[in-house]
Request: fold
Amino acid sequence: MSPSDNSIARFSLIVVWLLTALVSVMNVHGISNDLLQANAIIPASWHGWIIWGGAAIDLLLGLLMVIKPSRMVYLSALLMTVLMTVIASWVEPALWLHPLGPISKNLPIIALLWQLAKGA
Reply:
């Protein structure tokens, strides 16, 4: 990727991470919680911790991409994306078949993060 492509990729990922943090917090008692409640795999007492913890991680990664973009930040984001994809697949595998692709969209995000990490 060229330097300008890296900037576009980085900016798009910053937006994804920061908006995901915001939306997660806004929906802590809405869709985020509904998704966890729909499956009894994860105890209800953990739901708040999972949502707030995920939002905090998303916020941190987004901010780090703004203030200190580096190979470590991109690889950390990649690891978290893979981890969240695995957890979401375990909790609600039907999300892979959702027409808006809430999980399948992680595949190009992983590819972008890999490219940015290689070029950092």
